[in-house]
Amino acid sequence: MNPRPLHSLFPPGQVPHYYVVKTLADVASANGVATTLRLKEILGRVNVVLGAVQKEPTKWVFAAGTVIPVAHSVIYRASGLICHPLSVTALGRFAEALMHFQSDARDEQKLVVQLDMFQNDMSAAFDVIFTNWLNSKEAKV
Q1: Residue among 33, 31, 29, 30 nearest 104 (CA)
Q2: 3-state class of 71 per DSSP?
Q3: How many CB atoms lie under 10 A from the CB of residue 52?
Q4: Residues 6+ apart with CB under 8 A from 35
Q5: Cβ neighbours of residue 87 under 8 Å, at least 6 residues apart?
Q6: Kind and range of the H or E element at 93?
Q7: CA pair distance 139, 112, nearest whole angstrom
């Protein structure tokens, strides 16, 4: 039996099941280099569906706890905010994969994938989270 590739369970334009997103996040954490090589495609699929996510558990698996500002740890800049990916959720684990890629990838892989390639996609994801998902009462906190 040949297992289906994970990305086939996340077709473009469809909100994936909670466990598909969680598994993508876990794979990103365990294999940052391979995930980063496909991360542009993954983030493209994520950004298309983020606005359509309605269920709280699915919102959580994508985004809860993904932005933790720190003073000296520049992992990723999203909308001017310096972030450190201390998270068990998808966007945090994707940022973690970028960090692992930076330290573990071969030189020829680093020539193909530049970290700034992901800035627009990550910023778009955070824009949806901060503008569409947060209630106005929560945004003041």
Answers
A1: 33
A2: coil
A3: 12
A4: 27, 28, 42, 94, 97, 101
A5: 64, 65, 66, 68, 93, 95, 96
A6: helix 90-104
A7: 38
CA gap 125, 119 in Å, rounded: 10
User: What value, to the nearest 5°, has the Cα angle with vertex 6 and ends 119 and 50?
Assistant: 45
Model confidence at 3, pLDDT cuts 50, 70, 90, reads low
Sign of CA dihedral 35, 52, 124, 18: negative
Q: What is the pLDDT of residues 77-97, one digit of tens each?
A: 444 444 444 455 899 899 989
d(CA 88, CA 64): 8
Whether 44 contacts 110, CB under 8 Å: no
Rounded CA-CA distance 41/61 in Å is 18
pTM: 0.77
